[in-house]
Each structure stands twice: as structure tokens, then as C-alpha cells.
Specification:
single chain, alpha/beta, 5-stranded parallel β-sheet, two-stranded antiparallel ribbon, 7 strands, globular
Length: about 170
């Protein structure tokens, strides 16, 4: 059975894709909302509370708790995990395919400002930082042999269909 990562910058649709997969009875987890999976840590690996205002990402890491992720992937089922993590290099090889959702500034801004379930990125400094980070993220993920990019400016249904087709997972 396959193990798949749905990655992308804030506003790319990771959580929406995961919800859509779950609605099809496919095992899928949103890393940001799964208890204890992703923690804000300082550069020494200490769990820290969320700071107020814009986050200085030179001081913090958004790290997956790798033992938990490995446990989630040890199943005979197809598993999709949606999320973004600072420690991706340590777990990237555990996935058969990493789907990187690609968007542009206009789509990213619109989605971040319109979403109701998350406030991250709505601060003007954070939003500007996310535009820059998207290119850094794309460059960082480009080195993975198991990477497949998806144009996430398309309708959600189309994005999910492309992910299912490329993963070989049927509903």
C-alpha cells in the first residue's frame, strides 16, 4: 500500500485535499490538526508556545514528531498526510510520492485571507513572507526524487482526481 504526502505553502489547499480524501473513506491526516503531530520548536528542538504577531522563522521550526509519523505510516492501508514541516528531509523517503501543490501569489493571497478555520498568514508581514517562502519551498522540495507537482490553482475536484490517478488509489 502507498504512502503519500500532500505538501505546499499555506493556502495551497492541503487541508481541503485531505478533507476531500477523507470524504471518500480514504485514510488521510491533516498534520496541522492531528494532536501532537506538529509542534513549534526553537532551533534547539524545544517545544515552545506560539509567539504573538508574525513569526521569525529564523528562530523557530515547524517540526513533525517523526516517531508518530512513522507509526501512522506503518499500516497496510494507503495513507495520505497533508502538511508542511521543517524537518521534511528526515522523513521524505518514507513517502512513495510527495505531491507538491503549486499556486501563485494571487491564489495564495485570496485563499489565506478568505479561510475561516486558520488565522496564520493573515497578518500582512506573514503574508508577504509566505510569498517569498513559496519559492524557497519549491526549491527545497525539487531535490526529492519522489516529487510530483500539481497545479493547485485548478478546482479542488480536479486536484484530488490528479492525486488519486497518480497514486493509483481508487475510491
Amino acid at each position: 500500500m502507498g504512502k503519500y504526502l500532500i505538501a505546499g505553502p499555506p493556502g495551497s489547499g492541503k487541508s481541503s485535499v485531505i478533507r476531500e480524501l477523507q470524504s471518500k473513506n480514504i485514510t488521510a491526516y491533516d498534520a496541522d490538526s492531528y494532536p501532537g503531530m506538529t509542534l513549534l520548536e526553537d532551533n534547539n528542538g524545544n517545544h515552545v508556545p506560539w509567539p504573538s504577531g508574525a513569526i521569525d522563522w529564523k528562530k523557530y521550526q515547524w517540526n513533525w514528531q517523526l516517531d508518530l509519523v512513522r507509526k501512522m505510516l506503518k499500516t497496510k492501508k494507503n495513507v495520505f498526510i497533508g502538511g508542511l514541516t521543517s524537518n521534511i528531509e528526515e522523513i521524505s523517503g518514507a513517502f512513495d510520492i510527495i505531491f507538491l501543490l503549486m499556486i501563485d501569489d494571487e491564489v495564495q493571497e485570496k485563499r489565506i485571507l478568505q479561510r475561516k478555520d486558520k488565522d496564520y498568514g493573515k497578518d500582512p508581514k506573514q503574508l508577504t513572507g509566505e510569498f517569498h517562502y513559496r519559492s524557497v519551498l519549491n526549491e527545497r522540495y525539487a531535490k526529492f526524487d519522489n516529487l510530483l507537482t500539481i497545479d493547485a490553482t485548478q478546482p479542488l475536484k480536479t486536484v484530488v482526481e490528479q492525486i488519486l490517478k497518480n497514486s493509483g488509489v481508487t475510491r
